[in-house]
């Protein structure tokens, strides 16, 4: 092999390595073996429905997991004060596979066949309840509301950690989930979730929660987010924030556990700018590589 060909081969290897580094981004959970997992199944699942749910959750042998069940009575207990019986339904079907993860890893939620609650709504409510550092996959055998899932996750979290969650915090978390979901029906999932999360961060970081401050924060944030709220919606948010004030909420958890959601509510415009900068930087990087290749071959054969 002549000298020029050796350079070409070496440069090809180097370029391939760089490309591989950019496109091979590992999953957050790919290399971590869970120490303990809890599988929480809806008690009213039929056999065929249970098979569907287990397949969605990736469970091959149910005996490999710690298994518990959520009942319809659990749903009514946690959600009966906030949600119409027609939404709760008559059967507990929501099922969850939950794994405790490393400290400050955040709350990661995946949903399949859940039509009432979004991943961000679950995550926001779990923070209020005091839950930290979990990976949860929520599934229904077909499209369902998923209302039982929040109770299931809190129940299994207590089993995994051996720590009891505050009853008031759990109750408020369910209220938050329902309030956010109802608000999302009119203003959309994304804005509803961001508004509630931003309110919590704004009010409880300053630790000066009064009815006037809550009202002012709602007006300011809704205006900044270009969201128009009805008086009824504002009243529900005021009541929710007043209830959350009774809970020993961990403000730092909103940042560390909410992950991308916190980045969004912190400064939406900055985040968009950062994304654009990243894209431009990547484009510039590959542009420079291509220019280097051209110059390289020009030097060899020019």
What's this model, at a glance?
The chain is α/β, with parallel strands linked by helices. Helices cover 62% and strands 12% of the residues.
Structural class, by secondary structure, is: alpha/beta
* Number of continuous helical runs: 13
Beta-strand content = 5-15%
Spans with pLDDT under 50 lasting ≥5 residues? 3-35, 268-302
| Sheet with the most strands, sense and barrel status | 5 strands, mixed
The sequence of SSEs as H and E is: HEHEHHEEHEHHHHHHHH
What is the number of strand segments?
A: 5
Q: Whole-number radius of gyration? A: 24 Å
Determine the mean pLDDT: 77
Your description of this structure?
The protein is α/β, with parallel strands linked by helices and 302 residues long. It is 62% helix and 12% strand. The chain is built from 13 helices and 5 strands. Strand 1 (37-42), helix 2 and strand 2 form a beta-alpha-beta unit. Helix 8 (189-206) crosses helix 12. The longest helix is centred in the C-terminal third of the chain and has 34 residues, at 268-301. It is globular and about 55 Å long. Mean pLDDT is 77; it is low at 3-35 and 268-302.
């Amino acid at each position: 092999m002549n000298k020029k060909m050796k350079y070409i081969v070496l440069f090809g290897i180097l370029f391939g390595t760089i490309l591989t580094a950019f496109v091979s981004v590992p999953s957050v959970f790919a290399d971590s073996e869970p120490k303990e997992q809890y599988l929480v199944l809806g008690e009213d699942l039929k056999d065929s429905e249970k098979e569907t749910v287990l397949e969605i959750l990736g469970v091959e042998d149910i005996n490999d997991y710690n298994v518990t069940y959520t009942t319809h009575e659990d749903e009514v207990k946690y959600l009966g004060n906030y949600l119409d019986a027609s939404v709760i339904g008559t059967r507990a079907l929501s099922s969850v596979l939950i794994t405790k993860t490393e400290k400050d890893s955040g709350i990661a939620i995946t949903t399949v066949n859940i039509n009432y609650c979004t991943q961000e709504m679950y995550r926001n409510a779990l923070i209020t309840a005091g839950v930290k550092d979990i990976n949860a996959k929520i599934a229904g055998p077909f499209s369902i509301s998923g209302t039982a899932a929040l109770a299931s996750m809190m129940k299994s979290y207590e089993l995994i950690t051996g720590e009891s969650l505050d009853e008031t915090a759990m109750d408020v978390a369910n209220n938050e989930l329902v309030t956010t979901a109802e608000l999302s029906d009119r203003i959309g999932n994304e804005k509803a979730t961001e508004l509630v999360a931003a309110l919590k961060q704004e009010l409880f970081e300053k630790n000066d929660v009064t009815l006037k401050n809550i009202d002012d924060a709602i007006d300011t944030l809704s205006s900044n987010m270009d969201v128009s709220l009805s008086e009824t919606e504002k009243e529900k948010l005021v009541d929710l924030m007043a209830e959350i004030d009774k809970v020993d909420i961990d403000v730092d958890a909103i940042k560390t556990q909410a992950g991308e959601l916190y980045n969004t509510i912190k400064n939406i415009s900055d985040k968009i700018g950062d994304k654009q900068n990243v894209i431009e930087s990547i484009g510039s990087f590959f542009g420079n590589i291509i220019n280097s290749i051209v110059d390289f071959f020009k030097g060899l054969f020019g």
